[in-house]
Amino acid sequence: MLDLVLPSIEQGVLTLTFNRPDRLNAWTDEMGRRYFDQLTEAEQNPEVRVIVVTGAGRGFCAGADFQTLNAIQDGSYEGEPDKRPNTFPTTIGKPVIAAVNGACAGLGMVHALVCDLVFTAAEAKWTTAFARRGLIAEYGLSWILPKLIGQAKAMDLLLSGRTFTGAEAYELGLANKSVPGENLLEETLAYARELAVHSSPASMAVMKRQIWGDWNQTLESSESAAVRLMTESFGRPDFAEGVASFLERRAPTFPPL
Hints:
The protein is α/β, with parallel strands linked by helices. It has helices at residues 29-44, 66-74, 107-113, 141-149, 151-160, 166-172, 184-198, 201-214, 219-234, 237-247; strands spanning 5-10, 13-18, 50-55, 59-61, 96-100, 103-105, 117-121, 125-127, 164-165, 177-179. α4 crosses α5. The longest helix is centred in the N-terminal third of the chain and has 16 residues, at 29-44. It is globular, with a radius of gyration of 21 Å.
């Protein structure tokens, strides 16, 4: 039976490749379950420090498989989606980097953006697609997109469902880097190896938890905490020095921590 997600580890970097190239790696319950299982195994494997996710063939992930969508539409769907949410990669304590090599649509776009970093082929085709299928912004995308690119641009991508390139995805702020497709995996793996060699695994795990966890704070709770912290800062010598140095037009000499 075809392995739906191919693993390969080298120099501390685990590459997971969605492996339904004939379907542009369209998402199925089985592929999702295998992907999440391998992420769980990677978190427990001390040899793995960084995870790269990409697709075989011409696609990264073209969204939910149309056979699944048809079955849902006509009431014949009998699948059992994995109980782990599609945001599951955000809970893994190791960096997960998407290498978007081709078609990245709908649910596939969700799975790219719940990775911690995104590298994309400049010519890859991206689309949210949902509005053109009579669907909604699925699996937290309405939360993620505005955080990454702002409300107006998120509205554009969601309401229009238009197709755009990896180069534009980078310009919008969806991707950390856009490169020619033939160089994508090489450059992504080179970056991943840098993390694996030079960055503390414990540090990366904590920082990942901080970044994703802080998104769960409401504006009200964030503002309340900020007022408290700001009030405390008024009593520190740093505040007095900061104001004085500004008024005196000189470099500040803050005390050590």
